[in-house]
Amino acid sequence: MASTILVTGATGTIGTELVKALANRGVTVRAGVHSIIKGDRLKHLNPDVQLVEIDYHKPETLAVALTGAERVFLLPPPTSDQVELARLFIDAAQKAGVRQLVQLSAAGAGRDAQIEIDRRHHEIEQLVAASGLTYATLRPEGFMQNFVEQHCATIRDEGKFYMPLAEAQVAYIDVRDIAAAAATLLTSDPATHAGRAYHLTGPAALTGQQVAEALSQGTGREVTYVPVSDEDARTAMQELPAERVEELLALYADYRAGHAATVTDEVASLAGHAPHTIQQFANDYKALFQPED
Ligand SMILES: NC(=O)c1ccc[n+]([C@@H]2O[C@H](COP(=O)([O-])OP(=O)(O)OC[C@H]3O[C@@H](n4cnc5c(N)ncnc54)[C@H](OP(=O)(O)O)[C@@H]3O)[C@@H](O)[C@H]2O)c1
After folding, report:
1. To test ligand 1's pocket by mutation, which of 42, 75, 200, 255 has the most ligand atoms within 8 angstroms of CB?
2. What SUPFAM superfamilies does its record include (predicted)?
3. Mean pLDDT of 267-285
């Protein structure tokens, strides 16, 4: 029988693309979804995708989801208690006897993990390394899709996006490339990648101005990057939980310090193709940035 691959965070930005990438490879995919209703659209991607409910706060759901899964993609929920939740998942994976665990971490966890989000990823990496499971780690840089998740409304309504990045360069990665890299790890011999960590980036380190130029070209309307102060960014993010706002401001400061500007060739070596450029991203997602009628 073909081995079953459990994808956690399956309805999220990376998870959706990973389910698609694995289903295209013809492997048995079990999508771990927080709610079956939300997960139902994954069935439309491919009717053979299995759905299983996972709530990290309910360890019994982890045990059920992991039963019979040989390989797993661990995307710890993006919450402040994610280290504890990841610990529960790792324990359950050990008990279930999984053959390989691929974890989603963050680029900063492989540097000095100076900021809170990176420190949590670093701690989870250490738990995984100490677990005795065969594992591999993906450490992506900032996502191109953040421009959809976080800035789509102002780009649509005003043709502008506001970030406290000054002239900082970031080697933004398209999440489709993270998914392609993860799909390779989850379908090749686990021993080949055992214990290895991959720093995944896009093909270039970009300023906000360069992102704006790509979005302008992709959408056919002028999009402008507006550098703002931390204070203005804090005010603009007031609908987010205070803790999340401070995490994002720390991340932006890290970017301004030049820590996210390194470009690697790890997507090409894992996925077997060049990473998407910001222009390809802007062209493919242009409909989401258009003003509503
Ligand atoms: N954004 C970046 O630039 C960047 C860069 C590097 C690394 N990262 C890392 O990437 C991760 C986020 O990935 P993403 O953007 O794909 O995430 P996402 O889109 O926010 O998706 C998170 C997923 O987790 C699920 N989830 C939330 N709480 C859960 C719970 N208690 N039990 C089970 N599932 C739960 C969500 O389901 P529901 O929606 O149904 O709750 C969703 O499917 C974070 O760890 C972040 O640190 C991000």
Report:
1. 75
2. NAD(P)-binding Rossmann-fold domains
3. 98
> Do both 162 and 277 map to the same domain?
yes
Residue 192 domain-assigned (yes or no): yes
pLDDT value for 110: 85
Assigned domain for 46 exists: yes
Over 50: is that where the pLDDT of 196 sits? yes
Q: Model-level pTM? A: 0.97
My answer on whether 190 and 233 are in the same domain is no
* CA 65 – ligand 1 centroid, Å: 18
Q: What is the pLDDT of residue 2?
A: 63
Mean pLDDT of 61-75: 97
What is the number of domains present in the chain?
2
Report how far residue 215's alpha carbon sits from residue 151's, in angstroms, rounded to the nearest whole number: 12
- Domain range for 43 is 4-140+174-200
Which residue's alpha carbon is at the smallest distance from atom 19 of ligand 1?
A: 12
Q: Which residues of 59-88 are buried (b: 16+ CB within 10 A; e: fewer)?
A: eebbebbbeebbbbbbbbbeeeebbebbbe
Among 6, 7, 11, say which to mutate for ligand 1: greatest number of ligand atoms within 8 Å of CB: 11
Is 267 inside a domain boundary? no
How far apart CA 103 and CA 92 sit, in angstroms, is 15
In this predicted structure, the answer to whether residue 31 has a pLDDT above a threshold of 80 is yes
* Residue 279 shares a structural domain with residue 165: yes
